[in-house]
Specification:
Blueprint lengths: L2 H18 L3 H24 L9 E9 L5 E4 L1 H12 L4 E11 L5 E13 L8 E15 L2 E11 L5 E2 L7
Bound molecules: 2-acetamido-2-deoxy-beta-D-glucopyranose (NAG) (4 copies).
Length: 170
């Protein structure tokens, strides 16, 4: 299918949607953009390409990682440094599942996303796993033609952390 026909199909589909839910076609595009940015966060952490966190967080973002021991991180440099410090040398897989975007307006939105962080043991700990379950409760802003996280609360979910604590935590 040519790009132009995909786009026109999308336009027809969103007009149809907008007829039943006025204004929603615009919001649904923001929802996919926001979810994509939150997914990119997982990839940035797992590839340890921390400078790219600037694509996810605003320069003045405040991220509260208190529940997993990193405190309140104010500003992009503090966030980058804390991620590098806590994940240094640890292969990881961040998975994002449930992701609910709400309260969208032209310039702001809220999102709650569940995540699972697997940390894989290396060397003598090869085969060991350490798992963290939590959710990100985010507020986002639309600036410079893109959505970014302005505040993030990291909330721990449920029961005990699972796995081998020999694998460094966070
Ligand atoms: C938008 O761009 C301006 C100028 O580069 C910058 O000062 C500002 O921090 C940017 N806003 C966000 C949310 O990244
Ligand atoms: C990342 O953390 C390691 C270990 O603490 C440190 O040696 C290194 O300089 C840090 N890298 C950056 C770019 O901050
Ligand atoms: C968005 O989330 C923030 C922080 O959790 C909350 O204070 C605010 O009321 C929410 N916005 C709306 C429109 O519900
Ligand atoms: C791995 O285990 C061996 C045998 O117990 C030990 O000699 C070695 O120091 C350990 N290596 C590391 C990096 O802990």
């Amino acid at each position: 299918m040519h790009l132009s026909s995909i786009l026109s199909f999308g336009a027809v589909a969103s007009v149809a949607y907008a007829n039943s839910f006025p204004g929603f076609s615009v919001a649904s595009d923001s929802i996919s953009t926001i979810k994509n940015i939150l997914s990119q966060y997982c990839i940035i952490l797992d590839t340890k390409t921390y400078p790219d966190l600037s694509k996810v967080y605003t320069a003045d973002a405040v991220a509260d990682f208190t529940t997993i021991g990193l405190g309140v991180l104010s500003g992009l440099p503090a966030i980058e440094a804390a991620m590098n410090k806590s994940l240094f040398g640890i292969p990881t897989q961040h998975g994002m599942t449930t992701s609910y975007v709400s309260d969208i307006s032209e310039k702001s939105a809220n999102a709650t996303s569940y995540y699972t962080l697997q940390q894989f043991g290396t060397g003598n700990n090869t085969g060991q796993l350490f798992t963290v379950w939590g959710k990100w409760v985010d507020t986002l802003v639309f600036e410079n033609s893109t959505w970014k996280v302005k505040t993030r609360d990291v909330v721990a979910m449920g029961g005990p952390l699972i796995g081998n604590f020999i694998v460094p935590t966070h």
